[in-house]
Design goal:
The chain has seven helices and 16 strands. With 319 residues, the protein is of the alpha/beta class. The strands form three sheets. The chain has a seven-stranded mixed sheet. Strands 9-10-11-12-13-14-15 form a seven-stranded mixed sheet, covered by helices on one side. The two termini are 31 Å apart.
Length: 319
């Protein structure tokens, strides 16, 4: 287990401005030479000859437009969920596109884009290509978006009109929802915008009847315990993939064991794993993270009915 870094007070420390953000508790020291070292070392001990087997379930998503449906999570793929709560729907990091800049999609989106209700809203974690997808933006209705600092103008230039930018620990209201931008241990970069020019974030979405935590992209850090203490989320959507090699990925991506610890630190009742199975981004096979998570859940005595990795298109109805 990676130890949390820094004092919890650093979660509230100054962390830059548009054009130059940083994590005050975890300086990042990755260099182009580190990237070259990673790429030259190959793909580790894994068998890359066998294509990954990504489970997929057929789903037309029609229930998303039925306001009488129970609370549920539908995995579209990667970090995209369609979450239904009390008749409302929100999307996380919506990505229906065919690729993440270069890596092609390994599995189809779990539901059709047309299934998204026009009354839905969106939370976005950061601007990396596997999370912020222009192909999808051009095809979604003009929904309300909640985004970290530095991304509002970028989205408005692409035709979105209802964009709310928030800093860490800031909240906004939308109907009965309170949407709070929270820290994550990550970074940002995109062609034409510059490294760390916009902020990265996780999100707490409180409907008044249930609290949902969307982890975005993050390494393991002390923020999970603080977020759990302050907000007590009931449902945690957490990344479990793109974690190898650990010497390079540890600060930016959790592995499945760390994700399970984050779930415990948050104090949540249910967890769905994400950030796997859609794009081949790092050394481990794209279908490995859920198998590792299942083993860790068994080893650590967690409840496999409460900690799950869904098939693409699978809907999880929560009690």
């Amino acid at each position: 287990m990676t130890a949390p870094t820094g004092d919890p007070a650093s979660l509230f420390a100054p962390h830059g401005r548009p054009g130059a953000f940083f994590c005050p508790w975890q300086p990042f020291s990755t260099t182009p030479l580190d990237v070259l070292r990673w790429k030259l070392r190959g793909r580790g001990p894994y068998d890359r000859k066998t294509p990954p087997r990504i489970p997929v379930m057929a789903n037309d998503g029609a229930y998303l437009k039925d306001r009488d449906q129970p609370a549920s999570i539908t995995w579209v793929g990667h970090c995209t969920f369609a979450v239904q709560d009390g008749g409302d729907v929100f999307l996380t990091d919506p990505h229906w596109g065919p690729r993440a800049l270069v890596p092609p999609r390994l599995s189809p989106p779990g539901i059709p884009l047309a299934a998204v209700p026009r009354e839905a809203f969106v939370v976005l974690s950061h601007n990396h290509y596997d999370h912020l997808d222009t192909w999808t933006i051009r095809r979604l209705p003009d929904l309300p978006w909640f985004v970290p600092l530095g991304l509002g103008s970028w989205l408005r230039r692409r035709g979105l009109r209802r964009v709310t930018e928030l800093d860490w620990w800031q909240s906004a209201r939308l109907g009965r929802w309170t949407v709070t931008c929270l820290p994550a241990q990550h970074w940002s970069n995109r062609l034409g915008t510059g490294r760390n020019a916009s902020l990265w974030a996780s999100w707490l979405l409180d409907s008044g009847s249930r609290r949902w935590y969307f982890g975005g992209d993050s390494g393991f850090f002390q923020g999970f315990a603080e977020i759990g203490r302050r907000f007590a989320p009931e449902v945690a959507l957490l990344p479990i993939g793109a974690y190898e090699p650990r010497w390079f990925m540890r600060t930016m991506h959790m592995d499945p064991r760390e994700a399970l610890q984050a779930f415990r630190d948050l104090g949540a009742r249910w967890m769905a794993g994400m950030h796997w199975g859609t794009f081949d981004l790092t050394d481990e096979p794209a279908d490995l993270p859920p198998r590792v998570l299942a083993r860790v859940v068994q080893e650590e005595g967690a409840d496999p009915e409460r900690v799950r990795s869904l098939a693409v298109g699978e809907r999880w109805i929560l009690p």
